[in-house]
Amino acid sequence: MCGIFGVMGHPEAANLAYLGLYALQHRGQESAGIACSDGEVITFHKEMGLVADIFSEDILARLPGHTAIGHVRYSTTGSSELKNAQPFVVDFESGSIAVSHNGNLVNAHLLKQELEVGGSIFQSTMDTEVIVHLIARSKRGRIEDRIVDALSQVRGAYSLLFITRDKLIAVRDPHGIRPMVLGKIKGGHVVCSESCALDLIEGELVRDVEPGEMIVIDQRGLQSSRPFFPAPPHFCIFEYIYFARPDSVFGGVTVYDVRKRLGTELSRAHPVDADVVIPVPDSGVPAAIGYSEESGIPFQMGLIRNHYVGRTFIEPQQSIRHFGVKIKLNAVKGVVEGKRVVVVDDSIVRGTTGRKIIKMIRAAGAREIHVRISSPPTAFPCYYGIDTPLRRDLIAATHNLDEINTYLTSDTLGYLTIDGLRACIPRGEKKGYCDSCFSGDYPVPLDVQESDEQLPLFRGSVRI
Ligand code: 5GP
Ligand code: MG
Prior knowledge:
17 helices, alpha+beta, Glutamine Phosphoribosylpyrophosphate, subunit 1, domain 1, Rossmann fold, globular, single chain, 23 strands, binds magnesium ion, seven-stranded antiparallel sheet, six-stranded antiparallel sheet, 464 residues
């Protein structure tokens, strides 16, 4: 998971990219970068860390031009280091190109091997670099044709933004696995991961970029095409459950509304006699509101989050993660003491966070703790750009409901079913989802079938 933002046709392109990335910071906190074109050259700046810490007025002033793309990174392929930060900028025969990628390719390791046998030298361990090599080697003329040529060889999830000297090009994979939306701002065009970035810059959401769509924006305006074989849509259902910001809109539906509905459904599926409903902030809040409204049990903030700590998952190591939970959350004694408490969260991955939280609430005096999860058990790893770990590390892959309940030390535990989840998600002719993390149905075939491991995308550098 990563966040991408692109703008063309605005005199303050770099400043807009900065703001856009700031609004997309929840999608990745490891590194950030912006590349700009002034019509002649591409300049860029990228560093490890958070958007607000990386960019200063000085740095932004050194990124001139009307065209910019940016990226915030959360590594799913390639290690967490500067050489893997994006935008990835290269010069080749027909000029400079910069690329920002959200997603994961499932055949990148094979393509990389072939390219290396053919003499290519790789600078990074990112799957995105494979695309750049394929573009550079393409025999086609126009950059958009080279991009299509390159992408017709890759499989997997990609929402991509490219800039050249005089163009902004956006491409979404044929299944539309990762999000991407199109917007407008004062004569300029914007393409970005989520609409919350448009809200911040006072832009206007036009529509989702369609699965398999390529949008080329240049001096003449915007051109849309469908250069790939049509495929059924498989938008990542986890964007609605957890990843996206709740104020973002996909397919005309606000993420907040979906999350609240998940809570309503959860309350119907797993009612319980209790005194108070509390969310695990922030991700569990809308579902807890839905649960509370449907059940009539009062909603309270029984856990307080320290907002100066990033998402727990930022730290790749288990040891740090354990520590992270303690510094991130604290129970409110006055809310939970002597009470029968319903705790609502969006998902359980390893279960380590949940277990700590239950202990914390118990220590604050809760009489009973009923855990309710607004998604089905996460039993399968994601290969398309989300960091759900090795199958054996997913608690629901190796434990049944009773065992998870015992591990968490909760009194009862209830998840949504896949059907319950599907009932809450926007439906329609053009809407289809990837729910492989729950169902194991992978829409893009994997090279390694029945494997217990994440794909060996770049052996030696894959994180977990
Ligand atoms: P666990 O302790 O079960 O591994 O973590 C569960 C928590 O992680 C939930 O509160 C959920 O909001 C969050 N979460 C679920 N999936 C992801 C993910 O892929 N990345 C990040 N950053 N957090 C996740
Ligand atoms: Mg959470």
